[in-house]
Structures are given as structure tokens and as C-alpha cells.
Amino acid sequence: MNTSPLVERIQDSTPSSAKTIGLMLLESGKINAQDAERVIKLQKEENLRFGEAAVKLGLVQDADIQHMLARQFDYPYLSPGEGGFSKDLVAAYDPFSPQVESLRALRSQLMLRWFDDKRRVLTLTGANPGDGTSYLVANLGIVFSQLGERTLLIDANLRTPQLHTYFNLDNKAGLSDILAERATLAALTRIPQFVDLSVLTAGTQPPNPAELLARGNLGDLITLLSRHYDVILIDTPPAEQSADFQAVSANAGGALISVRKNRTRLNEVAAIKDMLAAAGAEVVGAVINTH
User: Fold this and answer.
1) 130-159 pLDDT tens trace
2) φ/ψ (deg, to 5) at 208
3) Which residue(s) pair with 191 in the sheet?
4) What SS3 state is found at 185?
């Protein structure tokens, strides 16, 4: 394959890798050909790495270099505004923040305590609207994807769905449509900005969400999807709104309770735990959400 002299010079001026930082900066438009020549010159004069020289010249910022390094190590994240997703996707836009470190710690606990070859599905629920289950599902999905797990997010909140807003997705066809046999698995959307992340939105708002979720084909659908994904996270309505979360969690097998700091009461958490147990779902734990 023919390469330009500039590309060859960038390749020669940096340690070998699948794709050098210099080439990625050039391809992403962060620097132009003239900038690259200046960087190579300074790099040789002061024995710097390409990224260090580019930062020293003021052509890029440290954040840009971190972004490119993440791509090299198959740990992609996004620059602010990139992808057009919600800014609340902190795992995508601010992966080195304390919030995301907490999400990674939660991911580790779930890998140890729940997910394995047989248990691949987990619901998230809370007591009240605003307890942050959609936020947790969306961001946990990203950090599981960054680990290389084949990850699927399902919005089973058929009353007030939120998951599609995080990923800027059309919500015309989704879970409700599949359960009503109005759509196929083509309703799943692959999110190409991440390693292996797909989303199934809630879909058309049905007049009978409780009955729709209680049908046997929800379990069949979850079983089918479990053959193709390592991790399936399901967002459910809060307990205050309905008992929908019980039907979904019963089919998933396990549930994680989202607790809002300084807001959710202990008796509410205890009530949810009892309802989940009555439905035959194991409570994996509870997580305090400060978002």
C-alpha cells in the first residue's frame, strides 16, 4: 500500500504501534500537514514523543493526547459534544472522573457477584422517579462495553422511557413493539462509538404496559438475547409508578436497587426488596446514586 512521505515520516518518528498518535491526530483533524512537520522538527530537536511535542507547540491539549491513547488501547471515549449524546453519559465524556471510577468499581462488584456464563441479565429499579436508574443503566453499559463485554441495554420503562434520550435514538420501535409482535430484533440499535454496545429502546407507548410485560414472550425474548450478549442491563419504572419492575425482574433473575442519596427512605428500599423476593428475583444489592 502506498503512503505519503509525511505519513512515513510520522511513522518513522514514533514507536511502532497499530496506529501512531501522530496519524490519529492528523486523521481526526486536530493537526494539519504543516503542523505535523513542525511537530516532527521539535520532536527530533528535543527528543520528545510526538504527542509531547504537539502539546508543547500548543497545537493540541493533554486531553487530546489522552483521547488518542485511549483509542490505541481499545478504551474509546468521546470528546465533549462528539456523537451528539447526552452530556450525562459521563463514562463516555469524562472517563477519568471520580464518578466513573465509582461506576468501574460497581462494574467489578457485579462481575464478581452476579455476571457469569449463566447469569447475564440484571434489572435496575428505584423507589421514585428521579432515582437515577436510567443514568446508571446508560453509564454502566458503557463501562461494561469498555471492558470488552458484549453489552445490551433494554428500556423496559414503557411508561416514562428515558434511555433513548441518553443515546439520541429514535424511539418509534422498541421493546413494546417486539412484545406485541409489531417489530423484530431489527429494532435493536448498535452504538458504533463504543466497543460492543447496543440499545433496545422502549418503543411505542402501549395502553397496557403491565399486561404486555407480564406476557410469557418477555422471558422468551430475554432468553434469546442472552445467547448473544454477555451483559444485559434493563431499566425499569420506579416502584412508586407501578409494579412493572417485578415482572421484568422475575424474568431477568436479579435486580439492583438504585437509592437516591438524602431522598430514598429505608422503608422504601425494604419494600422493593420484599416485592422482588416475592417475584422470585434475587436482590444483588443497592447502589447510592448522587447524580
Assistant:
1) 889 999 999 999 999 988 899 999 999 999
2) -130, 60
3) 197
4) helix
Q: With 70 as the cut, is the pLDDT of residue 16 above it? A: no
Residue type, 31: I
Instruction: Note the helical H segments in the chain.
Output: 5-13, 21-27, 33-46, 50-56, 62-72, 90-93, 98-113, 133-146, 163-166, 175-179, 209-214, 216-226, 244-252, 266-279
Q: How do strand 197-200 and strand 231-235 relate by DSSP bridges?
A: unpaired
Angle at 255 between CA 249 and CA 261, to 5 degrees: 130
Domain ranges of the chain: 5-73, 83-289
- Among all chains, which residue has been given the C-alpha cell 488518542? 68
Beta bridge partners of 172: none
d(CA 107, CA 111): 6
Pick the residue with more confidence: 30 or 1?
30
% of the chain residues with pLDDT over 70: 89
pTM for this model (two decimals): 0.79
Which CATH architecture fits 83-289? Answer: 3-Layer(aba) Sandwich (3.40)
Report the alpha-carbon distance of residue 98 to residue 92 in Å, rounded: 13
Instruction: Read off the pLDDT of residues 190-203 as tens digits, 9 standing for 90 and up.
Output: 999 888 999 999 99
- How far is the C-alpha of 193 from the C-alpha of 82, rounded, in Å? 9
* Residue 176 C-beta-side C-alpha neighbours within 13 Å: 23
- Residue 104's CB: how many other CB atoms inside 10 A? 17
What are the residues whose beta carbons fall under 8 Å from the beta carbon of 288, sequence distance 6 or more?
259, 260, 261
Burial of 249 (0-12, 13-18, 19+ CB in 10 A): buried
| 3-class state of residue 85 by DSSP | coil
